[in-house]
Task: inverse folding
């Protein structure tokens, strides 16, 4: 089963971390990528640029209107997106759990083009 | 000149034989498997252009053996340049006498390899990947495309699988007689998994993936040839043929799914049905009964009905009752409930389904909700059916299933 693991974090929290703690978290992430690569579960990772660079586009009076910054008021923004291929949701959650320091992690199943007639 | 398709077929057939020869010569399954893969890749490039060598098996054994020697000596860069020259020479100059001498062992080798690739220490996806490459003769790129993952990911999975087999202390030998039945059960499961990967993809755009049905049938046919007396092997082959026979009718040109009851049965593959029915009839007559034979028998009853209304549900119900005794599982209960509903009415089916609500393997899944919706619809409880179809549509991770379930729900709008 293919899943995406979405890591949301607050940039202010991240900037306030002591350097050793930030390094530790980065090491945890990198080790996990190595582990998933070795096990054949890793598909891809996208690290998102700071949300300052984001543009939000929405229809206003029937016309696409562009605003600077991320969608919504939340202080936590999408920081990175991992695509994995694992056997079960339990395994995906186990992987997500390792990414929780200073972040909220969402696990979402990806839709598949295959299907069974009923 | 030979067609690339013809060469590919030949390579798939020869792959396990060549690997068997190498492993018996050198041991070290993991290295031999890499060497054979490289030889197959070289042949896939050269043979369509230069023609198939007179003794293709000997050619592959020779090229793979050299790769093997290279790997052991760690001189691959230099030797590979030489090999490009050597492999381009006429086959007769290249092949050492006796490279084909071990032919009688070929059949046993394929069987031994299947057991090794379906080693119980491996996870099902690893068993599938390794079987397709080492026994099926597919390239890593082809296996990766079939499973929609990057080639590097698949290469890593295969390499990890081989390390796991090595660490488990598995040898290139038939499992001891006491373990044979259990190990064969795993092999059959892996072939069925390969088939289903292809079958469920056959309505979508993933043609490479849909090709897996052909590959699974080919391997099951080979296994049946090697173990003609085994009823479950015959049962699996029959099940695959009888299921695949319905493939042309299971989806519309736009990729949407057609349920069994609404399929255009004139589009079913009559030859595959005849072969499947003959296989299962003969297996049931002489072998101890088993789950694949029962599932094949059920598929045969469906396939033999000229119209959905002609389906002999009583016979199907008896077969599910047997299956529930021989190999109980939540999926069997699910299908058993449908048969029960068709014979004794939807309420009986719904009562059996309710037993699955306390089964953690099935409770809350889209499959349970979809069947419940169907039976509620049969019972005339339109509102509840609509709600359950919607619940199933939210839970499935399959786009065509979601579309089908939402369509059923929409049909029941007041």
Result:
């Amino acid at each position: 089963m293919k899943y995406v693991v979405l890591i949301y974090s607050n940039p202010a929290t991240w900037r306030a971390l002591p350097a050793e703690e930030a390094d530790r978290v980065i090491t945890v992430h990198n080790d996990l990528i190595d582990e998933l690569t070795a096990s054949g579960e890793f598909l891809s990772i996208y690290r998102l640029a700071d949300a300052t660079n984001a543009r939000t586009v929405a229809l206003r009076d029937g016309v696409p209107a562009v605003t600077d910054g991320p969608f919504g008021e939340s202080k936590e923004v999408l920081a990175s997106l991992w695509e994995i291929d694992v056997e079960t949701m339990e395994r995906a959650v186990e992987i997500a759990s390792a990414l929780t320091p200073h972040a909220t992690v969402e696990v979402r199943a990806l839709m598949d083009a295959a299907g069974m007639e009923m | 000149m030979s067609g690339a398709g013809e060469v590919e077929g030949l390579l798939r057939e020869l792959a396990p034989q060549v690997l068997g020869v190498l492993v018996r010569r050198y041991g070290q399954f993991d290295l031999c498997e890499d060497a054979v893969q490289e030889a197959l890749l070289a042949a896939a490039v050269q043979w369509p252009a230069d023609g198939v060598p007179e003794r293709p098996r000997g050619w592959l054994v020779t090229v793979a053996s050299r790769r093997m020697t290279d790997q052991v000596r760690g001189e691959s860069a230099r030797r590979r340049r030489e090999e490009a020259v050597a492999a381009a020479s006429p086959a007769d100059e290249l092949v050492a006498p006796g490279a084909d001498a071990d032919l009688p062992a070929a059949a046993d080798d394929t069987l031994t390899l299947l057991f090794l690739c379906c080693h119980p220490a491996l996870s099902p996806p690893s068993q599938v990947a390794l079987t397709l490459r080492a026994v099926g003769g597919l390239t890593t790129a082809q296996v990766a495309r079939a499973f929609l993952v990057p080639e590097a990911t698949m290469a890593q999975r295969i390499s990890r699988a081989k390390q796991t087999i090595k660490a488990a202390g598995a040898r290139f030998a038939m499992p001891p007689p006491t373990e044979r039945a259990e190990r064969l059960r795993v092999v059959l499961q892996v072939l069925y998994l390969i088939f289903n990967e292809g079958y469920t993809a056959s309505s979508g755009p993933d043609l490479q993936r849909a090709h897996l049905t052909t590959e699974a049938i080919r391997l099951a046919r080979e296994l049946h040839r090697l173990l003609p007396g085994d009823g479950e092997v015959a049962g699996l082959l029959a099940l695959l043929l009888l299921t695949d026979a319905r493939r042309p009718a299971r989806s519309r040109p736009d990729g949407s799914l057609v349920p069994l009851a609404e399929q255009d049965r004139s589009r079913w593959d009559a030859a595959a049905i005849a072969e499947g029915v003959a296989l299962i009839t003969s297996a049931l007559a002489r072998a101890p009964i088993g789950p694949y034979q029962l599932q094949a028998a059920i598929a045969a009853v469906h396939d033999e009905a000229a119209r959905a209304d002609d389906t002999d549900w009583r016979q199907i119900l008896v077969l599910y009752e047997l299956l529930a005794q021989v190999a109980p599982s939540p999926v069997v209960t699910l299908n058993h409930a449908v048969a029960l509903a068709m014979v004794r009415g939807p309420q009986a089916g719904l009562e059996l389904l309710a037993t699955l609500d306390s089964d953690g393997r099935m409770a809350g899944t889209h499959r349970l909700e979809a069947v419940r919706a169907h039976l509620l619809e049969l019972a005339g409880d339109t509102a509840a059916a609509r709600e359950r179809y919607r619940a199933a549509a939210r839970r499935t991770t399959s786009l065509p299933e979601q579309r089908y379930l939402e369509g059923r729900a929409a049909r029941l709008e007041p």
Notes: The CA atoms of residues 53 and 90 of chain B lie 7 Å apart. The interface with chain A takes residues 123-126, 147-150, 153-154, 156-158, 160, 197, 200-201, 203-206, 209, 250-251, 255, 257-260, 263, 370-371, 374, 396-402, 404 of chain B (CB under 8 Å).
